[in-house]
Amino acid sequence: ESYISRLSLTEPHLHSFLHISDTLLRDAQLIDRKIEKGEDVGPLAGVLVGVKDNICTADMPSTGGSRILENYKAPFNATAVRRVKEKDGILIGKTNMDEFGMGSTTEASSFQVTANPWDLSRVPGGSSGGSAAAVSARQCMVSLGSDTGGSVRQPASFCGVVGLKPTYGRVSRFGLMAYASSLDVIGCFGTSVADTGILLHVISGHDRFDATSSNREVPDFSSQFSSINLVESKPLKGLKVGLIRETLEDGVDNGVKSAISGAASHLEELGCTVTEVSLPSFSLGLPAYYILASSESSSNLSRYDGVRYGNQVFAEELNALYNDSRAKGFGPEVQMRILMGTYALSAGYYDAYYKRAQQVRTLIRKSFKDALDDNDILISPVAPSAAYKIGEKKNDPLAMYAGDIMTKWLGPALIGLKESYFKPIMPHFTLLLTVPSSSHRSCLILIEPL
Ligand code: GLN
C-alpha cells in the first residue's frame, strides 16, 4: 500500500511506468498468506520488481516502447520474469524505454518521456530509463532492464543507482525483444549491490529456450555482502587496477574526471595499486557498435510487419500493408537504424561495413585481453557527462551516440577481472566496487569473472 501511494505521488512527475499492474495488492496478499501459513517463500518474497517493457509478461502489455506493439500482450512470461515470480517477487509494472532499446535518454519512447528523479528537467538516461528512474525514486525496490550497448549502465549512472550488466549468456534472453542479438543482455537495477546481487542470482542460469545461455553453475551472488567491511579488512590489497587512459581524455567533463580520480584514490586506500593503462582500440568501439547493432536490428525488426507481429494498417495490397504498418508503427530513430543497418548489410557494402566492424570487434577484444595481462581489473567512467537536459541532444543523434563511447564493449563500464583473484575474499563471487561515474553520484558495479 505504501508503494501504491508513493506511485500516485511520484508518477505524475516522473512517467517511469508505461503500465502499472492491476493485481498488485492481490499478488502481495498471496505472498502474505503464504508466509502466514508458514509456507516456504523465495528470496524475493514481497519485493516489488519493475520490468522494462521489452521483456515479455503474460499479465501486462509488452510494447518495447513502440507504437507498433501498442496494447500487445505476450502469451508467455520471459524466463527472467518467470524466475522472479517463482521466487515470490511481485511485478509492479512495465517501465518506459527508448523504442526497442534504441536511444540513451527515453526520449525515443513512442509514449512518454521519463524524468530524472534528481532533477526533473534532466533525462534519466536510456534506454532503460524507466527502470533506473523507478528504483532511484523508490517506486519499486529493484528492476529489470536490458543492456545492448550501455542501456543499464548509463541510466544507472545518470540516476545514481546500482546498475549491472551481467556477462552475455548469464541470463536467458528468452522473452526479451531482440534488438542486436549478439549483444543483448538482461540486467538489474537496485539501490544496493546486495539487492542487485539477489535479483541477479534469481534470474541467472541456463535456459533450454535460449541456446546462448551459459550452463555454468550460478554462484550465490548475494551471500556474503554484509560480512565484509572493506575499509577495515582491506580485502583489495595487492589488486592491480588499470584506469583506461582513453576514457579520461578530451570530451569528458571535469566533474566526471574528478569523480573517477576520487574513486581511484578510494581504491588505493583499500589496498589497490592504480595505474593508467592504454586501450589503443578504444575509439573504434563506438562506430563498430553502431554498425553491428543497426545491422542486427534491421534483421530482427523485420518481424514487425503488421502480419506476424505488430499493429496492422489496412491496405488493399500486401506490400502496402507492410509498408504502411511499419511507417506508422516505428518512430524516427528506429526507422533511421533500420535504414542504416539495411544499407550496411546490402550486397557490395557488406565487406566494407559489417565485416570490418566484426574485425574491429575482434581487435577490441584483443586489446582488452592485453590490458588484462597486466591488470586484475580495468575501470572507466560510465559516460562522459552526468545527466543532461531533456531535449538537449534529441535532435543531434551523433552527439547522443557519442555519449555512449564508454559502454561499447567496454564491458561493465569497464571491468575485466581475473577469475581467481577474489576467491579468497568471496569464495564464489568477485568484486564490488564503488566507481563514481558522474560528478556527484556513484555507480556501484558488481563483476562476474570473465
Ligand atoms: N544508446 C544505445 C543505442 O541506442 C543503447 C543500446 C542499448 O543498450 N539498448 O543503441
UniProtKB/TrEMBL annotation:
Pathway where this protein functions? Nucleotide-sugar biosynthesis; UDP-N-acetyl-alpha-D-glucosamine biosynthesis; N-acetyl-alpha-D-glucosamine 1-phosphate from alpha-D-glucosamine 6-phosphate (route I): step 1/2
What are this entry's molecular-function GO terms? ATP binding; glucosamine 6-phosphate N-acetyltransferase activity; glutaminyl-tRNA synthase (glutamine-hydrolyzing) activity; hydrolase activity, acting on carbon-nitrogen (but not peptide) bonds, in linear amides
For this UniProt record, the keywords arranged alphabetically read as follows: Acyltransferase, ATP-binding, Chloroplast, Endoplasmic reticulum, Ligase, Membrane, Mitochondrion, Nucleotide-binding, Plastid, Protein biosynthesis, Transferase
Q: Where is the protein localized?
A: Endoplasmic reticulum membrane; Mitochondrion; Plastid, Chloroplast stroma
Q: What is its EC number?
A: 6.3.5.7
Task: Give the enzyme class.
Answer: ligase
Active-site residues (renumbered): K52 (charge relay system), S127 (charge relay system), S151 (acyl-ester intermediate)
Catalytic activities: L-glutamyl-tRNA(Gln) + L-glutamine + ATP + H2O = L-glutaminyl-tRNA(Gln) + L-glutamate + ADP + phosphate + H(+); D-glucosamine 6-phosphate + acetyl-CoA = N-acetyl-D-glucosamine 6-phosphate + CoA + H(+)
Q: Which Gene Ontology CC terms are recorded?
A: chloroplast stroma; endoplasmic reticulum membrane; glutamyl-tRNA(Gln) amidotransferase complex; mitochondrion
Principal location class: endoplasmic reticulum
| One GO BP annotation of this record | mitochondrial translation
Its placement in the membrane is given as: Peripheral membrane protein
* Misc: This protein may be expected to contain an N-terminal transit peptide but none has been predicted.
Query: Its family?
Result: Belongs to the amidase family. GatA subfamily. Belongs to the acetyltransferase family. GNA1 subfamily.
Q: What is the role of the protein in this entry?
A: Allows the formation of correctly charged Gln-tRNA(Gln) through the transamidation of misacylated Glu-tRNA(Gln) in chloroplasts and mitochondria. The reaction takes place in the presence of glutamine and ATP through an activated gamma-phospho-Glu-tRNA(Gln).
- Describe its partners and assembly state: Subunit of the heterotrimeric GatCAB amidotransferase (AdT) complex, composed of A, B and C subunits.
Q: What is this protein called?
A: Glutamyl-tRNA(Gln) amidotransferase subunit A, chloroplastic/mitochondrial
Q: Which organism is it from?
A: Populus alba x Populus x berolinensis
Q: Which gene encodes it?
A: GATA
List the range of the whole protein covered here.
64 to 513 of 820
